[in-house]
Inverse folding.
């Protein structure tokens, strides 16, 4: 009998020890779960929130990041907008502007080109495309881009001015003069256009007309006026 009781007691002690040993890691896991559970729950909650954002919400986020000068975050947000809505021309345009500011001209051209392919009347995208083509030294494509801007918005003085610059680079002086004339007709206070126009008059040896542009520039931009004066009287 005595031996039987010893066996029973030994068994009960073993069960108690096993329960105590098992209880420690369980309690530790539960404690750790309370401490780490907050971070885990945050991550779990954030995933559906991000994936449920619409293209326009991503676009608005990109715009806000740009205002805060967070260029990389803005870029990623515009990309997400495009992933959600590949046909969102405005997002392609803003992504192109982001690339242009960071010096990634090749990607900027790609983004602007996609923007105008999606919206053939996207004035700002064509204008930006013309500017990057000029930076690349691709005058022919720049010429076509600025012509598209003028097709969409004939009263865009800046587009006529840029067209004149491209024509001047291509040595089409007469056509460049006409473009600058249209620019100053639309915007009589366009100092740079008056300066370019005066310079062309000097090239044509039309000093009287060049001096007329100098007189206009005196009231608009004295620095450009003196620069033109030095061309008239070398």
């Amino acid at each position: 009998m005595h031996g039987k009781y010893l066996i029973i007691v030994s068994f009960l002690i073993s069960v108690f020890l096993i329960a105590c040993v098992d209880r420690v890691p369980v309690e530790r896991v539960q404690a750790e779960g309370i401490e780490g559970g907050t971070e885990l729950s945050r991550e779990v909650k954030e995933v559906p929130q991000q994936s449920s954002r619409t293209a326009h919400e991503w676009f608005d986020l990109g715009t806000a990041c740009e205002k805060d000068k967070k260029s990389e975050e803005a870029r990623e947000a515009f990309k997400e907008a495009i992933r959600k809505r590949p046909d969102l021309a405005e997002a392609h345009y803003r992504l192109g502007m982001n690339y242009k500011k960071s010096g990634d001209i090749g990607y900027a051209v790609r983004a602007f080109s996609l923007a105008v392919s999606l919206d053939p009347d996207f004035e700002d995208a064509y204008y930006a495309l013309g500017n990057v083509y000029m930076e690349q030294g691709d005058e022919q494509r720049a010429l076509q881009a600025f012509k598209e801007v003028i097709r969409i918005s004939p009263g865009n003085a800046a587009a006529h001015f840029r067209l004149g610059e491209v024509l001047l680079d291509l040595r089409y002086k007469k056509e460049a003069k006409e473009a600058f004339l249209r620019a100053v007709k639309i915007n009589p206070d366009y100092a740079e256009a008056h300066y370019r126009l005066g310079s062309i008059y000097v090239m044509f040896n039309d000093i009287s007309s060049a001096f007329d542009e100098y007189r206009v520039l005196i009231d608009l931009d004295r620095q450009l006026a003196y620069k033109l004066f030095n061309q008239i009287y070398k």
